[in-house]
Write a structure and sequence with these properties.
about 900 residues, mainly alpha, five-stranded antiparallel beta sheet, two-stranded antiparallel ribbon, 7 strands, about 70% helix, rod-shaped
Length: about 900
């Protein structure tokens, strides 16, 4: 908005000169009109028309009409300024109320988010602890599965040896059975020998009877042969019983051994199948360990993120509380009350429709009575305008404080927004981790379920197989007992064989005796000689059979001993296998317990992780709500409509400048215009002396001063305490500022003392870059931010919305939305007037500095070679009029 010093009356052509007749009227004749003017001053009624008395000169009426129109125009303008602030003031109040309400809701949702994050943090800590417990349990499972696999291997190895031993025992049993068939043949020979012995005994008795007394020796032989036959028959019966026993025991041994072998092989096959079913256990344990490791790693990572998220939520709560406090503080400024006081003051005037334009009136041409009465009305209006200006100034101060609070709100909202976005990111990262943990937990569950399923099937088969090991032991022990019985029978058969061998020897003796007796008998004993030969043959047959059966019994004994040895070994091995199976059952019990505990902990972890996800979703939703409220409030904080409220003082000062009211603002404005003119000369001189080109004055490539470049500002103040990373706020340089700053600073240092209300002056470019500043704002850098913020303000940017309006004073609405630090070409592209015009633009704003102190700010345009390069800003007390 361009503000000029022109008068409202310049819009109407001057009235023609007043007729000399006017002087012929007497003062008494004009008293009613003068009284009417005095009444207007008292009632502030500017809507009435000039009374037209019969003898009143039309020129007087015309002059007074123009005079009153000018007053109405002025006061209408003041009323328009005040009225225009009403809607924005109401908007301001609504926005503050909304922010307070939103911050209350934000506090609630932030607390909700904080509770959720705390719950998640506790859950993460629990997950971390439980994951460590799971690691230990998994190690136990690994050890138990190793013992399980090792036990299975030992049992299989034992069963393998047992099966081999049982096979050997089976072979020995078959050999026993085969040997026992020889006994059957021997039994037939014994029976035949027994029959022959009986027949020989009978024949011997018959021959003895034929010889009578001479055959007495034959009788003895006959009796012995008969005894031999009977003994042989008895031996045959014994052998038969033994053969049956050996056969039966051999059959039992073969059956028992065969059953043992079958069961052992089936057991081995079943256990191998059980082992095959559990072959995935190792892999599953590794997968479980990996999943647990992932969960543990995620939980450990979550701890850091959640700490940051918790800090972020707490910081968000503090920002939200700060926003609420600032909003309440701004609400207490009561702009509406101050505005109502203004409206009441300006409302004292009756202005009619206020549609006509102002005119010019030369009151000096009026008669003294009317001139004095008009001057009194003018003085009353001026006094009221000064009062209005004072009230507006107070309101402008409140508005400036309100704007400062809004800047605080905007800053806090910005920080809150950044914090909430950061917290959102942290929560989302945590949620990603939780989702990863959930996936790992599911992987844990899947691995454990697979382990339990495979292990349950394997263990069931294994336990069934292990129970059958007892049956193997029983059958092998039964076989051993049968073998022992067979060995005993074989021993008895050997004893019978010795008896038969004795009988054979006796038979040979008998044959010798029979031959002797036959020889004694001579011719008569020839028959007995034949018997003696038969007896000898029988003895030979018995001897031969005895030798054959002896070999058979020897083989049977050896087979029996081998069978005994192998069955004894098998019994021993079954004991070993049984012992291993008992240990295996203990291992299975331990492994089942380990798995159950692991499954319980894994389920607990999965449940906690699922709860984490729920809590994270809740926290995320809460932060999203808070973020949405912040964005709404940020839009309110950035609402450009309040800038019009901030322009209230500026517009009032522009109105007051249309005629002299004797205000301090008029004096400071004169100082500002004079200093700005001298600043133009500083730029022009630098260009004329070749220090800079005009184009340099448009340089917007601001270079931040850090590191060695900091020393450049040593020409202005002590920089010894400036850190290498630079100033806070940052300071910059351009191509031209160092060549004009001395002249600008000298003018500023001389201009500030010209009036006690002036606190500072500084020169800025169109982007708010401070080229020159008052010496009180060029003090040594201390490193204390608050001190330096107040005492060292040169070479930095003042680029908030109001400061940019001050820097761009006179460029109009086209510059309002130009971004900070814009190139000068952008101003040209937007059609901003950068060439000097007849009237130097100026405006007075009331604003709060970044330190919170409220001042009036007179901004005046500065030119170099008639090209706009910036503004002079004069900061003076806000409460002066």
């Amino acid at each position: 908005m361009v503000s000029t010093l022109g008068t409202f009356y310049e819009t109407v052509d001057p009235l023609p000169a007043v007729s000399p007749v006017m002087t012929e009227f007497t003062e008494t004749h004009l008293d009613p009109v003068a009284s009417w003017l005095q009444h207007l001053a008292a009632t502030r009624d500017l809507s009435a028309a000039v009374p037209r008395l019969a003898d009143t000169d039309p020129a007087i009426v015309q002059t007074l009409t123009a005079f009153l129109a000018g007053l109405r125009h002025e006061m209408t303008a003041f009323r328009a300024v005040v009225d225009s602030a009403a809607d924005t003031t109401a908007l301001n109040a609504r926005q503050l109320e909304q922010i307070v309400a939103n911050t209350i809701e934000q506090s609630s949702v932030v607390q909700r988010a904080a509770a959720a994050v705390a719950e998640i943090d506790r859950a993460a800590a629990h997950v971390a602890v439980t994951a460590e417990e799971l690691r230990a349990l998994t190690a136990g499972v690994t050890e138990a599965t190793g013992s399980y696999d090792g036990g299975v291997a030992v049992v299989l190895e034992g069963l393998g040896r047992l099966a081999s031993t049982v096979d050997d025992a089976g072979k020995s049993a078959v050999a026993m059975e085969q040997r026992s068939t020889g006994i059957v043949a021997f039994l037939e020979q014994l029976r035949s020998i027994s029959r022959q012995a009986r027949l020989l005994g009978i024949n011997a008795a018959i021959e003895a009877a034929h010889l009578g007394e001479a055959g007495s020796g034959f009788v003895i032989v006959a009796e012995e042969v008969k005894k031999l036959g009977s003994s042989t028959a008895e031996s045959a019966q014994d052998v038969q019983r033994i053969e049956k026993q050996i056969h039966a025991m051999s059959a039992q041994v073969q059956v028992a051994i065969g059953e043992s072998g079958t069961i052992a092989r089936e057991l081995a096959r079943d256990i191998m199948s059980a082992r095959d079913q559990s072959t995935q256990t190792g892999k599953q344990v590794r997968e479980l360990a990996e999943a647990i490791g992932d969960v543990a790693m995620i939980a450990a990572g979550q701890s850091t993120k959640l700490s940051a998220a918790a800090d972020g939520v707490n910081q968000s709560a503090r920002y939200a509380q700060n926003v609420a406090e600032v909003a309440r503080r701004a609400s207490r400024l009561d702009l509406a009350g101050a505005l109502e006081q203004l409206r009441a003051t300006v409302g004292q005037y009756k202005l009619g429709n206020g549609t006509e334009s102002a005119g010019t009136a030369d009151l000096s041409l009026l008669p003294t009575t009317l001139r004095d009465a008009a001057a009194g009305l003018r003085a009353q209006v001026d006094a009221d305008q000064r009062e209005l200006l004072g009230l507006i100034t107070k309101l402008a101060v409140a508005i400036a404080r309100n704007s400062y609070e809004w800047r605080e709100i905007a800053t806090s909202l910005g920080s809150l927004h950044v914090q909430l976005e950061s917290t959102t990111g942290q929560i989302e990262e945590t949620a990603d981790g939780a989702r990863g943990a959930a996936a790992s937990a599911q992987q844990m569950r899947a691995a454990l379920d697979a382990m339990r399923l495979g292990f349950a099937s394997s263990v069931e088969a294994l336990e069934h197989a292990l129970r059958r090991v007892v049956r193997v032991r029983e059958t092998v022990q039964h076989a051993e007992m049968s073998v022992v019985s067979t060995a005993a029978a074989t021993e008895r058969a050997s004893e019978i064989l010795q008896l038969i061998d004795t009988i054979s020897s006796e038979t040979i003796l008998l044959s010798f005796n029979a031959a002797i007796e036959a020889a004694h008998a001579g011719e008569a004993g020839s028959g007995f000689g034949v018997i003696a030969d038969e007896i000898r043959k029988l003895a030979d047959t018995t001897s031969t059979s005895t030798q054959e059966i002896g070999g058979i019994l020897t083989g049977l004994g050896e087979a029996s001993r081998r069978t005994t040895a192998t069955t004894s070994l098998a019994v021993s091995q079954t004991e070993g296998v049984h012992g291993e199976t008992v240990r295996m059952q203990a291992t299975v019990t331990d492994l089942r317990s380990q798995l159950d505990q692991t499954v319980g902990r894994a389920s607990q972890v999965a449940s906690i992780v699922e709860q984490q996800l729920v809590a994270l979703n809740d926290a995320s939703a809460a932060v999203a709500i808070a973020l949405a409220r912040v964005e709404i409030d940020s839009a309110s904080a950035a609402d450009g409509r309040r800038l019009e409220l901030a322009n209230l003082g500026m517009r009032a000062h522009a109105l007051a400048a249309t005629r002299p009211l004797g205000t301090i603002a008029e004096t400071i404005r004169r100082i500002g215009l004079d200093v700005a003119t001298e600043m133009d000369a500083v730029y022009n001189d630098a260009i004329a002396r070749g220090k800079i080109d005009l184009s340099d004055c448009f340089d917007t490539n601001y270079v931040e001063l850090t590191g060695p470049a900091i020393a450049k500002l040593g020409r202005l103040f002590d920089v010894s305490k400036v850190p290498l990373h630079g100033f806070d706020p940052p300071k910059y340089e351009t191509r031209y500022d160092a060549f004009v700053e001395d002249g600008l600073d000298a003018l500023i240092d001389a201009g500030v003392p010209e009036h006690p209300a002036i606190k500072a002056m500084f020169a800025v470019d169109l982007n708010g870059f401070c080229v020159g500043h008052f010496r009180e704002c060029r003090q040594a850098w201390t490193g204390d931010r608050v001190t330096d913020l107040n005492n060292n303000r040169i070479k930095r940017f003042f680029d908030d919305a109001l400061s940019l309006r001050s820097s761009r004073v006179g460029l109009g609405e086209r510059s309002d939305d130009i971004a900070p630090r814009a190139p000068y070409g952008v101003f040209r592209e937007r059609g901003c007037v950068l060439m000097r015009e007849s009237v130097r633009p100026w405006s007075i704003y009331t604003y709060a500095r970044d330190t919170g102190v409220v001042y009036n700010d007179l901004s005046v345009a500065i030119y170099a070679r008639d090209q706009r390069v910036g503004s002079l800003r004069i900061v003076y007390d806000a409460d002066v009029v």
